[in-house]
Structure formats: structure tokens, C-alpha cells
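Below is a typical protein record.
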Amino acid sequence: MSLRSLHSAASGMQANNFKLDVIANNIANAGTTGYKKSRANFEDVFYEHFKLPGQLDASGSMTPIGKSVGLGTKVSGTQLDFTQGSLKVTDGQLDLAITGEGFFQVVNPDSSTGYTRNGAFTLNTNGQLVLASGDVGRLVLPNITIPVDAQDISIGGDGQIFYRTAGTNTLTNAGQLQLTRFTNQGGLLQIGDSIYTETDASGAPVTGTPGTNGFGQIRQNFLEESNVEPVKELVDLIQTQRNFELNSQVVQAADQALQLIANLRRF
């Protein structure tokens, strides 16, 4: 019946509208440091079976195919894409980028541990290394403290941080940054502010030294840009709009069929 067509097309419109929201968020974050794009995945829903494959027909022969109709589509989930973003050169001594696997660790306002690819760091009033943010000050883990009079801060690919105080040529080790990775990065929970948190789906965090055991290396004076490709997102946007329009046309066709049925008269 046309009612089935209405519900199937409506599910298509709803799913494509959700995908449109995901694409809009990707495009909005095309300039967000360390942002990883998302993708909406679809799957078909239940089927109404009128005849199953392999049933016997009136002559006793086995039917090679069945007869069924699907009841639309739905969003099965959103999948994170953790491909490497391009690196942007900066003048900040505390601007860091990760090339390869791994996340920086920071302390969230609720004292839980957050994970981020955003390496735009700065120092707070106590000289502690924090994620640069005008809203929430998140300390970097492990805690790194650099004196106010520190000069020539250098951060190696292995996360070792050295500085020289004014009037001396001696390098002082301020500590070492660690990176964290997960068995299933796609299972991390996005909480905003370029921060992810651990979930049961992501698995337990594994922490290690940059450049060892599969961890990426740290690059000073660089920031990792968003991995959103605007051209691809715009193409996907157009395709999603067309799919939405096609489903809306099915709704109109089903409505016209129902209107025709409602206008039938007996003579």
C-alpha cells in the first residue's frame, strides 16, 4: 500500500537529515585544530516477507526467489575518522603536533582524564603546561612545570622538554610528555572542546613514550589541522540533499496515490 511507501520514504528523509547534520558539523569544524571528522552510516530496517525463497509453488516446484519489501532505512551509527590531518607551522614554542598514533592527556574539570589531538598549549600562572582555552584550563598529564624566566624551550620528538634560564647556558629537563592510544579509537566519546574520553567500547588507555612501540612522534612549532576535506564534504552534502529530495518525491507520489484512492466513487 501507499502507506508503506510513506513510512519508508519518511525514514529515508529522517536518515538523510541526520547525515546532513553530521556533514554540517564537519564543515563547521574544518578549521578546528586536531578535529577528526565523522561519517554517518546507514542500514536497512525490517522486511515484510510475502513469500520466502525456496517455497513450493502450486506445481510442487521450488521457487528460486522470494517476495518481500523493505520498510525503509535508519542511521546505524556515526564513525570517527582518525586519519592524520595536515601540519601547520606556527611560531609558538609550546605548539605541538602528533605525527602518527596517540593522544595528549589532560585533566578535565571533573578531574577525569581527557584525550586530545589539539596541541595548542600554554603556561598558566603557576608555570604549568595547560591546554590553551578561554573557557576551561586543562592541565597536561604528566604535569610539566616551566619557570617564568625560562628561555629557548625545546621539545624533542620523544616528548622530552628542555629549557634554559636567563643568564645560563645549562639546559634543564622539565619532564617528558607521554602519549596514549586505544584499541578502538572509534569507541571514544566526544565531549566537545576537542576532548575525547574513555568508554568501554574504546578499551583501556595504553600510555607510552612518543616514538616507541607504535606511538607517534611530537613535532614542536606545529599544530595538526582538521582532517576535514571541504570539497569531499560539499560533494557529500549535494548527494545527501538529492537523496532527501528523492525521498520527498516518493512521499508526494504516495500521497497522490492515497488521494486517488480516497476519491474513488461507486457508480
Q: What stands out?
A: Residues 2-82+228-262 form one domain.
